[in-house]
Amino acid sequence: MSFIALLGLGFVAIAIIMNSILTNYSIDTKEDLMYQTAKIIYSGASTTMKSSGLSFSEAVEANKSGFLDSCEPLSGYSDSIIMLTDQNGGLLLCVGEGSKKITAETLEAETVKGIKENSDSYKYSSLDGLFEKRRFNYRYPVKDATTEGEPIIGMIILSSSSTNLMGIFEQISKIIVIASLWVFLAAIVAVYFITDRIITPLKDMSAAAASYSKGDFEVRVPVKGTDEIASLAEAFNTMAQSLKTLDTTRATFLSNVSHDLRTPMTSIQGFIDGILDGTIPADKQSYYLKVVSGEVKRLSRLVNSLLDISRMESGNLKLNKVGFDVCEVARLILISFEEKIDDKKLGIEFESDLDPSMVFADKDSIHQVLYNLTDNAIKFTPEGGTIKILIKDCGAKFNVTVHNTGIGIKREELAFVFDRFYKTDSSRGLDKTGTGLGLYIVKTKLEAHGEKITVDSDYGKFCEFEFTLTKLSQNDKSEEKQNTQERE
Fold first, then answer.
1. Which domains does the chain have, with CATH numbers?
2. Residue of higher predicted confidence among 327 and 190
3. Which side of the chain, N or C, has fewer Cβ within a 10 Å radius?
4. How far is CA 286 from CA 86, 265, 272, in A?
């Protein structure tokens, strides 16, 4: 409605302006025609006056038939009544259609005075009753060039029916109004379809949003075309898919966390109750206390992971960058997994282009990154498999790779492995203690360092994670020294 109102105002303004322009043009054209006609009459009269030495009045009276013969065709040409008057307004000659209705022999003195003083004062008038209706009048003064000041000694007055002019005005207005109405109608149709094209997707989005608010993320908005609305619809659908994925992973996470919390707590409660009520004999209490300790550590890891995520998402993760040897960190992590490695009879390969490989990063964060990746590698490598840790020198950075043989990850799941709460082993066949947070923490901590991590896998054969670390430079050493002094 706003567009239509603006279009309507625009067309009205255009119609008024065009009508005014064309009307003024018609009037100017008519006036110019009258001027040329009067000039021709004056030219003939002037020639007669010069050759005979007579005044204007005398020349017209002396050659009245000649003036009649010349003025009659000019009257038809200009569509006007032609009147020749003396200086006092006395009618010397009057020709043209409707001139016979003029019975007066002279113009009113007030009319003559007004015409002489202001040629436009009687432009649209009946000349004070000379005509029955208002007409369009033009006055051409005849002046005495031989007298100082060139006084007016006569007038040539042309008068055209205003009805004819009104007919022209009405015709022009009619054409403009009809053309404007057709264009306005076409504009309304165009606005309707354009508005419908914009509003319909927005209504679909509104309906879809209402469905999302109720937890139904299956609704999608139809995408038509390639314009901005289509781009918005695509973005809306992408958002819906993200919400669906997030909702699914969140539900899975709650299920996993509930299981991971319930199982150890049930075990802890059972073992402690067994020790307290004597069900577990004294000689086996030490064994079961170790089991309880392991379950407590498992709960602690889960809580720590959730706290890490909370800090990272709130922006409170602070990096304490120092220079350290990433080779040493990797070796210590492998040593910490010695028992698990021996139990599964895994082969370990460790290669580094530089030893030591000094990097500048938060040591605790990188330790957790390598620990999580190595823990995953051991967890998903079958008995007798191989784990490789490779550290390659790539100029300003090191590329650290953690590779393991085994089942790997399906190609369609690679894009989601770093998502929060996502678990590829949904059956919990191999991943019995994970919560789907480890790789999310890995990626987030590396991104906080400005580093990148990628994953590659051939399902059924291997899985490989590779990330970058910035080398320790001389500037980094100065920054590390300054940070140490500030902490002290």
1. 2-170 (3.30.450.20), 228-314 (1.10.287.130), 321-487 (3.30.565.10)
2. 327
3. C
4. 143, 18, 11
